[in-house]
Amino acid sequence: MLLKELSAIASPLNDKQISQLQQAAAELTPQQMAWLSGYFWGLSQTQPVGQLQPAQQPAAAARPAGKLTIIYASQTGNAKGVAQALKEEADSAGVAVELFAAGDYKGKNLAKETHVIIVASTHGEGEAPDDAIELHEFLQSKKAPKLPNLKYAVIGLGDSSYEFFCQTAKDFDGFLSKLGAEPMLPRFDCDVDYDAPAAEWRHQALEKVQETLSVGDAEVVQLPVGHAQQVTSVYTKQNPYTATLLTNQKITGRSSGKDVRHIEIDLEGSGLSYQPGDALGVWYENDPALVDALLIRAGLDGSESVEVDGESLSLKQALISKYEITLANPQLVTAYADLSGSKKLAKLLADKDKLRSYAANTQVVDVLAEKKTRLTAQQLIGLLRRLTPRLYSIASSQEEVGEEVHLTVGVVEYDAGDETRQGGASGYLSRRLEEGGEVKVFVEANNNFKLPADDNTSVIMIGPGTGIAPFRAFVQERDNRDATGKNWLLFGDRTFTDDFLYQVEWQKYLKDGVLTQMDVAFSRDQAEKVYVQHRILEHAGQVWQWLQDGAHLYVCGDANRMAKDVHEALISVVEQQGKQSREQAEQYLNELRKTKRYQRDVY
What is the DSSP string of 441-452? Predict the structure, then answer.
């Protein structure tokens, strides 16, 4: 009707153009037409001055519908991936949408929004990802605005094996609700196998957005026009690249209690690129011998047929390539306790801490051994999580190694009675995959663990054990870029003789002046154990001076003990050297995290 009226009044469009518009509009929803009005208005603003004649200038800007704002709080990239998928789906549905990393979004702008979706992962012990700290704090502060006109939804990504499962998502949900915002649908918490449930939730959330987005009077949404799209690889988590294993070299000594491997993988022709600090995702296959042991425990022979993602497979093949059969989890233990009637497992269920500890230190096959119970094929796979790729910190710079990627892999291995258990991915890379064999991989960007853009900036790198991996990449990159900033590396492990990873390389970098300083802590080379946090305290004055001079601080490795102990040592440094209270010291380090000067890659 509106287009017919337009044809009857003065218009810069000819009859043919109006007819074409009428035909196109007949197939569009009100939301899509509103989006297009903003889009065409944006296009008109990119015309060179003088190109439009005065009679062609629009009398007033169109008034399209409100927009959807998606904010992601991501540490390793999973939440970002879910948020990007949601944006693409919103674009396809004709919904005006903007996407922000939490660190790029100003909290006060929430008062101007009508529809917001937050995708949040949880870092450490219930902490917000580094990029989201400022927004997380703002929403708890007195500066946070009341939000009676905001409709919102929150989806969390986490691992239910941990005590603070999806805590950041729970926090954001609580903050927005307290500020008066209205949830479009209940918060949804995803476990490690999140792809399918997250996709279903996105569908539901987008339907709610479309139902409630006003197509009436709203502020003009000027969408970006003509901006270059970010180039992304065709190879992703869902579509990995089939690479070749070039090198598998043990780099711990014969007498070491640990087996650490230097892995080199060929990426030639893949187009895959990465930056120091990124991770490599590795899709692995389970050990067939472990699959056989699991089948025996369940009273099955593996020939049973099961359906996985619409594909019919033998149970054995499904266990090799589709399901997680190494790591147990509290849900599996709980479900098997019910199925088996095991009194030992039932007792564990009453104590959540003991349950988490048991699940974290027991493999699936050993849980099933607690009480032999004959299962059906469906019952067995119903206990298991879907297989997910393992992420390894990349230990090389492409400036140094070209179309290769290097990893530092600690083989997870322990005795279980008369048998030896290995980790799924580490056992696959180090023992079962031969040089020349194929492995499916993808690059997982980590924008929260990056070298400073300014090569004049100094860096302090703290990486005991396999936490040294990204710092090998950092130093290679700084060397190839001729960075003038100072580089200080703190490394720790058990013994100097057997566990000094990449020792020859570090000695060369020290000799060449690429490494300004290196301090080591080998815990078992003396009667009293010494760790990297002790070296930090020994050099407290120097650490403080480097920080005062603008140095960036990086920590990589074990989250449960090392990262906490290092953080406590840093608090002590700030207290002592900066003459600050503990509260002030904690705030100082928090500010460093907000400004990307204190970054952690812990696991």
Answer: EEEE--TTS---
Q: What are phi and psi of 546, to 5 degrees?
A: -60, -45
Cα separation, 53 vs 65, in Å, equals 28
Closest CA to 165 of 326, 364, 330: 330
Residue pair 547/462 in contact by the 8 Å Cβ criterion: no
By three-state DSSP, how is residue 535 classified?
A: helix
CB 209 within 8 A of CB 184: yes
Residue 394 predicted with pLDDT over 50: yes
Q: Tokens 């629009």 label which residue?
A: 58
- The mean pLDDT of 173-193, rounded to a whole number, is 95
Strands of the sheet with 598-602, listed across from one edge: 517-522, 487-493, 459-462, 552-557, 598-602
Q: Which of 452, 457, 519, 518 is nearest to 486 (CA)?
A: 457
- Assess contact for 574 and 544: CB atoms under 8 A: yes
Q: How far apart are CA 478 and CA 487, in angstroms?
A: 9
Cα separation of 466 and 331, whole Å? 29
Contact 489, 475 (CB under 8 A): yes
Cα–Cα dist 578/582, whole Å: 11
Residue 140: closest CA among 171, 161, 111: 171
Q: What is the pLDDT of residues 536-548, one digit of tens each?
A: 999 999 999 999 9
Whole-number average pLDDT of the chain: 88
CA distance 90 to 84: 10
63-88 pLDDT, tens digit per residue, is: 334 799 999 999 878 899 999 999 99
Angle at 584 between CA 580 and CA 589, to 5 degrees: 110
For 191-242, what is each residue's pLDDT tens digit? 988 988 999 999 999 999 999 886 443 333 333 333 333 445 689 999 999 9
Whether 181 shows a pLDDT value over 50: the answer reads yes
Cα atoms in the 13 Å half-sphere on the side-chain side of 487: 23
pLDDT at residue 559 in the model: 86
For residue 449, what pLDDT band results from cuts at 50, 70 and 90? very high
Q: What is the DSSP string of 224-240?
A: --SPPPPP--S--SSS-
How do strand 487-493 and strand 459-462 relate by DSSP bridges? parallel
For the purposes of burial, counting CB atoms within 10 Å of the CB of 349, is it exposed (0-12), middle (13-18) or buried (19 or more)?
A: middle
Q: Which residues contact 355 (CB under 8 A, 6 or more apart)?
A: 330, 333, 334, 348, 349
| Total-model pTM | 0.80
